[in-house]
Amino acid sequence: MVAGPIKLKNIKTVTANTITATNILSFKEDHVMNIVPQFIPNTYQGLGVLERAKWRVITFTLDSDSDVFAASWGITTANTALGTSFIVTFDVADALGTVETWTYTFTKSWVQRKGAGRVEDGASRNVTEYVILMYGQKGIT
Amino acid sequence: MVTPLAVINDWNPSGVHHSHKYYELEMQLDTDWLTDTALPGSRWAYTQHVDAGDSLPAIVENGANTAIEYFVVALREHDGTAETLTYADVDVNVLWCVGEVSEFNNEDNTAHQPVTFKFICLQDVS
Questions:
Q1: Total domain count for chain B?
Q2: What residue numbers bound the domain in which B44 lies?
Q3: CA contacts within 13 A on the Cβ side of B83
Q4: Where are the domains of chain A?
Q5: Distance CA B109, CA A4 (A)
Q6: Is residue B47 within 8 angstroms of chain A, CB to CB?
Q7: In a domain? residue B92
Q8: I need a labelling partner for B99 at 20 to 30 A (CA). Which of B8, B36, B62, B71 fits?
Q9: Rounded to a whole number, what is the distance in Å from the CA of A130 to chain B's nearest CA?
């Protein structure tokens, strides 16, 4: 692999619960940190910050529904936790076909929301979105 | 932060309370990989030490974030004059990373990994 600021070309796969989806349209990871500024009352200078929580909101958009997160989504029952990990694989923008892998590991993670039904006329697809809450870590290789 | 002062039984606020001010900053990069490494796990916010005293990165996965010593942003004014904005001084615990967003889209046909870092700075810029 060449040194330098390598760019990613596209999202290749998402794997969870041993099921892999390849029909990914978009992916977004929002690493949310609830960090609150602290001030001395009625003065301008800050004291520091209070860090309350840190989590990730991860959004996958698929061109049609997939089984990849289906086991963790219940309409009439509580959602099941998403196992202990899921993996997102990207194609690197090089001629070698290199991939980059983001592995999220956690003890608890849930599907927070599922959006579906955006059937696009003439496009032969049913865009489906999964939003996942995750408390854990991400490793990149 | 300047908040309206409420007046009981009167819908017009009588003034404002000037409690505090701070900067909210965003920095968007087209890739999260550092320029001098071939390792994809070497990313600025997670592997670069932003505080020489603590030797810790800006984002700590399993712990509290570390204060960033300072930012220096070099830019040009409309007439070409160079300007330097310095956020925070050295090691005063007023500049912090408070979020990170990575976005990808398979439909835009561009090879990039836009990552946006958000910061707060509790001190005036110089």
A1: 1
A2: 23-121
A3: 10
A4: 8-140
A5: 21
A6: no
A7: yes
A8: B36
A9: 15
- Looking at the domain assignment, is residue B4 inside a domain? no
Query: How far does the CA of residue B90 sit from the closest CA of chain A (Å)?
Result: 14
Based on the number of CB atoms within 10 Å of its own CB, is B55 exposed (0-12), middle (13-18) or buried (19 or more)? exposed
Q: For residue range A56-112, what is the model confidence (pLDDT) as tens digits?
A: 999 999 998 888 888 888 889 999 999 899 999 999 888 888 899 999 999 989 999
pLDDT digits (tens, 9 = 90+) for A6-44: 788 899 999 998 899 999 999 999 999 999 888 776 666
Q: Whole-model pTM?
A: 0.85
Query: CA nearest B97: which of B43, B27, B42?
Result: B27
Say if domain A8-140 classifies as CATH 3.90.79.10. no
pLDDT tens-digit series, residues B44-60: 888 888 877 778 899 99
A7: contact with B, CB 8 A cutoff: yes
Number of residues that this document lists for chain B:
126
Residue of A nearest to B30 (CA): A7
Residue B19 contacts A, CB cutoff 8 Å? yes
